[in-house]
Write a structure and sequence with these properties.
445 residues, alpha/beta, 12 helices, 32% helix
Length: 445
């Protein structure tokens, strides 16, 4: 049967810890979407591992691992991540496979990604109003996306324009060269002298080395997944990014370029919806976001700074400081409406040990229409002018600690009330509660 673990906010919710725990019972752990633009850290057997494109089921020596068809893969980064795991003593032999239908992220895509971000930043800085004066660009609609510049967006763009290159095409040298030269020619027309330093023939030549190295890893993922499901193996799907970064349902255009929700998992791995046992939404006890785009409950004052400091909120992939704010139930109910969670994993509840009052965003108020919104708006210009409606709950500072708790009854009464408030408003049971950084710091209800 299939368990799917998905981010319910803007990423960095702590999916890796739950995935690490669940993969101990899994026969197959798979990534369905995205590339090495995501990342999390796992501590297993006293060793710390950083994962980006590789599934974290590699920490379980009995677990097979698959990078699925919906993913995009930068081949040098794939080998570098494997090498880093091997240096730490992790044996991955015959346990990691890559779908031949997945698309390749070329170095050309990384270059284009940086150029596109630069263009967006420049456009935001130079945007002018009709009277010629500089216009303040709205935080929800203008400016750079804040990508990781890993080439993910350009790779997916090429895929959907039907000009991308699949992994299996690496083994056809002539076909690979022809298609990459077409991509490079198009980029040259679009960006001109900005990509003069890129050498398409050098990149093609590098795949002469990768070709033989990659062959043992590449599989046809369709029969592999069909067989695993027919045998009713325990399959764990490791979501990347999160719902609010989904290309269709997130805060577009401030999103990633893949389908990060349940639908993306099903399509990216050829899953049978009838084999799904659990869809677990991972949600932080507060909210964070990396990069540009709307963040209604962001707190740029003392509380937000405290959440950032106490939660050590820096991205694994980029090292960027995460923006922080209070839990937003409008976001969470929107996420649930799309992903249909069967349960939630509430992470980092222990960080709220330090607050006497806890605020929760429960709605948005549009001052132009005097309406109260409980659904996340599709139009970011509406969101930009909205005011957040908060409810305040009593904290438990000085009344007990969540940190290190292992049982539901160990939690302070106010902490239990906070969890139950979330359950009531979202309509989903909180099954897992993170109470610290250790693997064992988890309450299972």
């Amino acid at each position: 049967m299939i368990t799917i673990v998905l981010g319910a906010q803007w990423g960095d919710e702590g999916k890796g810890k739950l995935t690490d725990i669940l993969c101990a019972q899994a026969s197959l752990c798979a990534r369905a979407q995205g590339g090495n633009n995501a990342g999390h850290t796992i501590v297993a057997n006293g060793q710390t591992y950083d994962f980006h494109i590789l599934p974290s089921g590699l920490t379980n020596p009995q677990c097979l691992n698959l990078i699925g068809t919906g993913c995009v893969v930068h081949i040098p980064s794939f080998f570098k991540e494997l090498e880093d795991l091997h240096k730490k003593g992790l044996n991955t032999e015959d346990r990691i496979f890559l779908s031949g239908r997945a698309h390749i992220v070329f170095d050309l895509h990384l270059l284009i990604d940086g150029l596109q971000e630069g263009e967006l930043t420049e456009a935001a800085e130079q945007e002018q109003s009709s009277d010629g004066h500089m216009e303040v660009v709205k935080k929800s609609t203008g400016g750079a996306i804040g990508t990781t510049k890993k080439g993910i967006g350009p790779a997916y763009s090429a895929k959907h324009a039907r000009s991308g290159v699949r992994v299996h095409q690496i083994f056809n040298k002539a076909e690979l060269g022809k298609r990459l030269r077409v991509l490079a020619k198009g980029a040259q027309k679009r960006y001109g002298s900005a990509i003069e330093g890129y050498d398409v023939e050098a990149e093609i030549a590098r795949f002469d080395t990768y070709r033989d190295q990659l062959r043992p890893f590449v599989v046809d993922a369709v029969p592999l997944m069909a067989s695993a499901q027919k045998k009713n193996l325990d399959i764990l799907v490791e979501g990347a990014n999160a719902l609010m970064l989904d290309i269709d349902h997130g805060t577009y255009p401030f999103v990633t370029s893949s389908a990060t929700g349940t639908g993306g998992a099903i399509n990216g791995l050829a899953l049978s919806p009838f084999k799904i046992k659990e869809i677990i939404g991972v949600v932080k006890a507060y909210t964070t976001r990396v990069g540009g785009g709307p963040f209604p409950s962001e707190d740029t004052n003392d509380d937000g700074n405290a959440l950032q400091r106490l939660g050590h909120e820096y991205g694994v992939t980029t090292g960027r400081r995460r923006r922080c704010g209070w839990l937003d139930l409008v976001v969470l109910t929107h996420s649930h409406a799309i992903n249909h969670y069967t349960s939630l994993n509430l992470t980092k509840l222990d960080i709220l040990d330090h607050f006497s009052t806890i605020r929760v965003a429960v709605a948005y108020k549009d001052p132009d229409s005097s309406t109260t919104l409980t659904d996340f708006p599709e139009d970011l210009t509406v969101l930009d002018r909205c005011e957040v409606v908060y409810e305040e709950l009593p904290g438990w500072k000085g009344k007990g600690n969540v940190a290190g708790a292992r049982e539901w009854t160990d939690l302070p009464q106010e902490a239990r009330a906070y969890v139950e408030f979330i359950e009531e408003r979202v309509g989903v049971r909180v099954k897992f509660i993170g109470t610290g950084v250790k693997r064992e710091d988890l309450i299972v209800r």
